[in-house]
Amino acid sequence: MAILITGVAGFIGSNLARKLLSEGKAVIGLDNLCRGSMANMADFAQHPQFVFHEIDLTDLASYQACVSQYALKHPISEVWHLAANSDIPAGISDAAIDLRDTFMSTYNTLEVMKRLDIPALCFASTSAVYGDLGERLLQEDIGPLFPISNYGAMKLASEALISASVESFLKSAYIFRFPNVIGTPATHGVILDFIEKLKKTPDHLEVLGNGSQRKAYLHVDELIDAMLYIQSQARAPLNYFNIGAGDEGIFVRDIAQLVVAAVSPHATIAYGEGDKGWVGDVPRFSYSIEKLRKLGWRPKLGSVQAVQLAIKQIVADLSRA
Amino acid sequence: MAILITGVAGFIGSNLARKLLSEGKAVIGLDNLCRGSMANMADFAQHPQFVFHEIDLTDLASYQACVSQYALKHPISEVWHLAANSDIPAGISDAAIDLRDTFMSTYNTLEVMKRLDIPALCFASTSAVYGDLGERLLQEDIGPLFPISNYGAMKLASEALISASVESFLKSAYIFRFPNVIGTPATHGVILDFIEKLKKTPDHLEVLGNGSQRKAYLHVDELIDAMLYIQSQARAPLNYFNIGAGDEGIFVRDIAQLVVAAVSPHATIAYGEGDKGWVGDVPRFSYSIEKLRKLGWRPKLGSVQAVQLAIKQIVADLSRA
What we know:
Two copies of one chain form a homodimer. Chain A has two domains: 2-178, NAD(P)-binding Rossmann-like Domain (Rossmann fold, 3-Layer(aba) Sandwich); 183-216 and 247-285 and 302-320, UDP-galactose 4-epimerase, domain 1 (Alpha-Beta Complex).
């Protein structure tokens, strides 16, 4: 049996593929290589249990043809659908980006699964489906769900279609609502931004917003550990879990200071105004992982430790490049 | 100023257009005439304040060109986006139907509104966004939202995109979550089904399911009254309301008996098995209209009275045809 991963060349997809291969699984990886890259898969691209196919998931006919061809050799037990737009601000200026990459990629994945009779889907959803619910604790069953970015909207749309599919043809689905995830290979996000800014101006770091934004961060290794744990333990047709660090998070100003300390200790930090980085960015939220704790999983690292580890890994990665 | 209605030739669209014209408003009506028909608009098609344009909303370029042309003459104050697939079972066997007619029509409507700077959207959503939450009272802020039909999924997807649009460019939006709506011109639904079955076999009515399904029904005149009331009273950027009869509803077996009494009093009724009519049909739910009551609106007819009135109107309509 083989496992199909969409978005395999991206940040989370490449880490997941590496992990599954290390456990002896056969992996079929798909990616359009727009945001992901071959470099992210360099260490396992030649693995005998791994095949990679460059493909645009928004072209249903070629998506189906491609998966059929592999399914003939190895029956596919499950799809991990991780492909999506990861640039939230870009998706707000142009809704077509999230329509295509975040939603139509899910729609087509479900169509292919229906036609080829693939029973299980693992889906990368997001805390952004909750929109801005103010100070309320974000547990999985909260409502209403009014996302404030097209990214969040198209992830919620994907969840809705998965839910309807479980009612009609899909055997089982796992919806993982991701927090902010960090680690390597870093493709975007505040840590990479700060490091790259400091490379250009080593004595000076400009921070978007006043630094009072607080967010929880989870390291990618822990995210993958949590997903595989959920998949092995949760048994409903439709399973949905928040995944996160489960703490209050870390302030942007603390991230800025940690990055400065690691990269350019003498740099001064200048803050902007307001507590929102950009339109569609939820300033602060409290994310419950109680349901996941009850299932028996908890993170080993808090947000601050995860950020420290990620800074170290990203800096090491960049110095090798 | 003019008001744009999509799906104007359908059941609710045609009733809304008639009402707005009677209030002296100028109405631009769009429809692809797949499920709607010119006959539904016969009494107001020649109204001097009304223009109709047959168009496929899923073609963004021609949608925009069409609306631009009218917007040059009459600035458009608001869009009532009612166009959607209305055949839930069809959308379950072929997800492409709801993708296109229920979701992409909304996506394109928002794109046109963004490009032409139209400030307000009124949107026909549905109780189907709630999925099957068992015995829980369906008030607007309940969660989780896991629809069980592609129709419900693509309405929730539309809501999500509207919500994100309010955050970025749309001035105001009204999301109306419709109950089962009845009246004329009837295009589908249990009353019409029963009447048509009895026309074929006047001595015999076969009911899908055991008749124990209970649903609340609202008459279309009351639905429109409620929507216009909400629009005049609610003032948030994003307003969302359940609309309904606010009662426990009527059993399918009672509808069967009322139809038989009105159409073919000597017919016998035969029931099937189970309490679900089809995949994706929520067997029973309790729909709260407390939020709408608090705003100051309440229905004049209960579900039973609404069904009685609708049967009378549909029978009269069919005898004229």
